[in-house]
Amino acid sequence: RPVLAVRDVHRSFGMDTALRGVDLEVQPGEILAIMGPSGSGKSTLLHILAGVLTPDSGSAHYGSTVTSDLGEAARAKLRLSEFGFIFQFGQLLPDLSAVDNVSLPLLIAGQSREVAVRQARRWLERLGLAEHAEKLPSELSGGQAQRVAIARALVTAPKVIFADEPTGALDSLSAEQVMLTLTELSRASGTTVVLVTHDARTAAYADREVVVRDGRLSGSAR
Ligand code: ADP
Ligand code: ADP
Question: Its domain of life (predicted)?
Answer without folding.
Answer: Bacteria
